[in-house]
Amino acid sequence: MKQIQLNVPDGKRVEWQEVDGKTIAVLVDEEVKYDRPVTERIKTFEDACVALNKRAEAGDETAGDLLADYESNRDNILCKEMLACMKLFIIVAALNDGWEPKFEKDEYRYYPWFRLYTKDEYEELSEEEKGRAVLRSGSNAYADGGVVYVYAHYASSSSITHVGARLAFRTSELALYAGKQFAEEFADFIFKPRDNEDSE
């Protein structure tokens, strides 16, 4: 067997792949190795930025692009929901550790599930909790602009969700963790009412 020596850029590694019946050497992104699980490393938005920055330094272009978009736009975005959405993209990317949904048949994707309250349950909430509620329903209600499509029927006695968004997680455990750990960020995006200062 012959041996060759190659100079490989930082953040890349050589991988042998079969292409059109031929074995060729391909440069692929090097995985960033961590000593702790992602749920122990990513507890704040700042943690997510640090994780993506490490991946960007190792050659992950998507991670770098997400951070660059946020940095260049955060001071100019007047719509709080858009800024919250950008933060969530960073958080989701950091928690997924490089996994991205492909939206292919038989691919499983997971999302945080947020509860819809009945009228009686809603009345028992504090004023702060009420400010974070998705909606109040009498007979029918729906919210189709958030993480997932939510539909509640007959005073929230039954509900379904479908039509997922790109804020998807690779495991149900990550979705549950994100929904609890980053509840404020999700609330800023889809639950918290807008300030009416600029509304007519």
Brief account:
By secondary structure, the chain is α+β, with helices and mostly antiparallel strands. The protein has helices spanning 38-41, 45-57, 61-73, 80-96, 119-123, 127-131, 172-181, 183-191, and strands spanning 12-19, 22-29, 140-143, 149-153, 158-162.
Describe this structure in words.
- It is a single chain.
- By secondary structure, this protein is α+β, with helices and mostly antiparallel strands.
- It has 2 domains: 127 residues, no CATH class; 43 residues, no CATH class.
- It is 38% helix and 15% strand.
- The protein has 8 helices and 5 strands.
- A 3-stranded antiparallel β-sheet has the order 3-4-5, with no helix packed on it. Strands 1-2 form a two-stranded antiparallel ribbon.
- β4 and β5 form a beta hairpin.
- α2 crosses α4 and α3 runs antiparallel to α4.
- The termini are far apart.
